[in-house]
């Protein structure tokens, strides 16, 4: 899949008693969508609707819905959880056993199937995405959350995916008071991971990127220190800033199309284009080599398959803990909405380009190529 267009699609209908229909009022681009557009994620089909980070108004409820009614303003977790399986009951929502309606595709690739996600290929359930006027939300009592009064749509929107994803990286990465945390990537998820680390008590948070507008956001709105990786040796810089020890927790928030200034960039790019590997893992490699001995590396970026030149020796000999996950949004969103309403987690600045849905291809072009300082393009179907 490499061509985007705006077309009419059939309005969704209630299929199961726990569904609601949401009129989408805001939906945003995400870096992981670019992997779909680039053809790096399997099982996309012509006519699929993208979008998994959204907010809107409930316009229809199924007979089994108990926590929502018509008129509620809700933000919806990007991953779909049934609320009843072992994984959901243990707050591992993106691993839900019951929400992926095409489990065989993902199980063939990963060994097990993850849960379903809106607008993210048939390997992840084939659900229509949020870049539309209306969307069907399954298991709505578990995945849709009422937005507090006074929290603006464009700010609350990011509680759908970016804020809980970033928070999860800091939380499951084990960030604690006094830690030094390094975050690779100053996109929305990376900024939210940095903010989460600060709120969890980290003594210093250092964000790494190359785009001036994103580095400025991380400093001004998030409160992080920054490193432009094109102007210095990141590993050496991190050691210098940590007295030679290295960060306690390293969070990778870039994903499968990471760039680097080193010679491995061309190597990874060629192998990825030839489909000899599915990822460009430069940021993961750098995080592993930079992390202090006995530290933790948490991988937040989306990866779809296999990588080459993975530094397993560094993991073993430096005693590192490596973790990763897709976001367990339902675990965090209620708490995060309260923090956002209290002004602890700024997100409004992430909306650099607000566009009507009819300008969807333009928004993705701006977002993909970082034109005009685009950090996130937000679509408003009703405008």
Report what the structure shows:
Residues 18-140 form the Alcohol dehydrogenase-like N-terminal domain. Residues 188-257 form the Alcohol dehydrogenase-like C-terminal domain. This is Threonine dehydrogenase-like Zn-dependent dehydrogenase. The protein has 383 residues and is α/β, with parallel strands linked by helices. Helices cover 30% and strands 17% of the residues. It contains 14 helices and 15 strands. The strands form three sheets. Strands 1, 2, 3, 6, 7, 14 and 15 form a seven-stranded mixed sheet that branches. A six-stranded parallel sheet has the order 10-9-8-11-12-13, sandwiched between helices. The chain has a two-stranded antiparallel sheet with strand order 4-5. Strand 14, helix 14 and strand 15 (377-380) form a beta-alpha-beta unit. Helix 6 packs across helix 7 (188-199), helix 6 (162-172) crosses helix 13 (329-341) and helix 9 packs parallel to helix 11 (282-290). The two termini are 27 Å apart. The model has no long low-confidence stretch (mean pLDDT 93).
Q: What is shown here, in short?
A:
With 383 residues, this protein is α/β, with parallel strands linked by helices. It has helices spanning 31-37, 86-89, 103-110, 140-143, 153-156, 162-172, 188-199, 212-222, 234-241, 264-273, 282-290, 312-317, 329-341, 360-368, and strands spanning 20-28, 54-61, 73-76, 79-80, 116-117, 134-137, 144-146, 180-184, 204-209, 225-228, 249-252, 296-299, 321-324, 353-356, 377-380.
| Coarse structural class | alpha/beta
Mean pLDDT: 93
Helix segment tally: 14
Radius of gyration: 20 Å
Most strands sheet: 7 strands, mixed
**Gap between N and C termini, in Å?**
27 Å
Count of strand segments:
15
Which bin fits the share of residues in helices?
Answer: 25-40%
> Overall 3D geometry?
globular
SSE order, one letter for each helix or strand: EHEEEHHEEHEHHEHEHEHEHHEHEHEHE
Our estimate of the beta-strand percent is 15-25%
Outline the low-pLDDT stretches: none
